Amino acid sequence: MENPGTRTSLPKPPLRTLTTPRLRLRTLTTNDAEASMRLLTREDVMRWTSREKVETLEQCTRWLEDRTLGKECFNFAIELRGVDGTTGEEGCSGLIGMVGSFQFPGLGYMIHPDYAGKGYATEAVKAIIPALWDHMPCASDDGIGYDYLEGLTDTENYASQNILRKCGFTYCETREQDFYNPTLKQQRDTAFYRLARPGKDLEKLGLLPLKESSEADEPGFVPPIQ
C-alpha cells in the first residue's frame, strides 16, 4: 500500500514563467487542482489517453501530483495573455490547458475544447521545447539523459500529430495495440514522433523514421498525450 507521504515528499519543480505573444506558461502545481477540473472531468479531453476522466477534486489533485512532483516533472499551465500583457480573460479561470513532461523524454499537451483550433497548443509546444532542452540532461556514456524528445499519440488523433509536425517532430514508428483506452474501451495503436536535440540527428541516434504517417489535417480538439 502506498505511503500517503510518498508523493508529497517528492521534490517540487522551481517556479518559472515562459511567455509567447498570446500565452503565459507558468509552472503547474497541485494548487491548480480546482482550475484543472474543467479539463480533466471532460470525456472529450481524456478521449485519447490511457486515463479515465476524473470525478472528484481529490482525484484531480492526485493526477496533478503525478505530473508536478519529482525531478523529471516539467509541466506548465497554459494561460491567455490579455492585450495589456496580463493573463486570463472574462469568463476564463486563467488555465486553458497544460504542456510539458512528467517523464523524460516525453512531451505532452492538452487544450480545453473551447480554445481548440486557434493554434494555442502549437504555440505552447514551440515555447517549451527550448526550455526542455535546457532542463533535460543530455545523453551521456553512462546512460543518463536524453538527446531527443518524444511525443506519443493515438494513430487516429490527427490533430495532435499535426501539432507535433508543425513543431519539428518526425514520425518514427507505430506500435500496435500497445495501450488500453478506458474511454474508448479498447486497445489502441500509438504513433511515435521524435525531435532530436540541436546538434544531434535522429538517424545517428538510432531513431531513423520508418515511414511517414498520413498527412491528414483533421481539425478539432487536441487532447493530452501524456
From TrEMBL:
InterPro entries: Acyl_CoA_acyltransferase, GNAT_dom, N-acetyltransferase. One of its GO terms (molecular function) is acyltransferase activity, transferring groups other than amino-acyl groups. Residues 23-200 form the N-acetyltransferase domain. Signal peptide: none annotated. It holds the Pfam family Acetyltransf_3. SUPFAM superfamilies: Acyl-CoA N-acyltransferases (Nat). This is N-acetyltransferase domain-containing protein.
